């Protein structure tokens, strides 16, 4: 018996949903392991070395408040999931840490806490590290 296009679509969506959950879970585990290896905190530049972490997606703290670009959608989803579960947190850092790592986005730096909470009109960068379970309050 041949499947209709609708049945194939439903089957494909179900398979891909499982793949996305598995891929996001793998990225979350790898991220937590990397944080633990670095004694609790990493920069976004450290994440890009993980397999499958690079991509064309952007992680934002609020509208136009960019934490990092160039991540895969699975890595962005993993980071958001871990933060929602309170297993990680973003900690503002001095931009010179990223300069020392050789990677600074070509964006103005976000400085106003109120603007960070509500979002910016134009894209800005909020330099942060990611801290792990041992430091989450």
Description:
This protein is an alpha+beta fold and 137 residues long. The protein has one domain. 45% of the residues lie in helices and 21% in strands. The chain has five helices and six strands, in the order H-E-H-E-E-H-E-H-H-E-E. The chain has helices at residues 5-37, 44-47, 73-84, 95-101, 113-118; strands at residues 41-43, 54-62, 65-71, 89-92, 124-125, 128-131. The strands form two sheets. Strands 1-6-4 form a three-stranded antiparallel β-sheet, sandwiched between helices. A three-stranded mixed β-sheet has the order 2-3-5. Helix 1 (5-37) packs across helix 3 (73-84). Mean pLDDT is 80; it is low at 15-24.
Estimated share of beta-strand residues? 15-25%
Tell me the number of structural domains. 1
Biggest sheet: strand arrangement: 1-6-4
Main sheet summary:
3 strands, antiparallel
Tell me the span between the first and last alpha carbons.
56 Å
Précis, in short:
This protein is of the alpha+beta class and 137 residues long. It has helices spanning 5-37, 44-47, 73-84, 95-101, 113-118; strands spanning 41-43, 54-62, 65-71, 89-92, 124-125, 128-131.
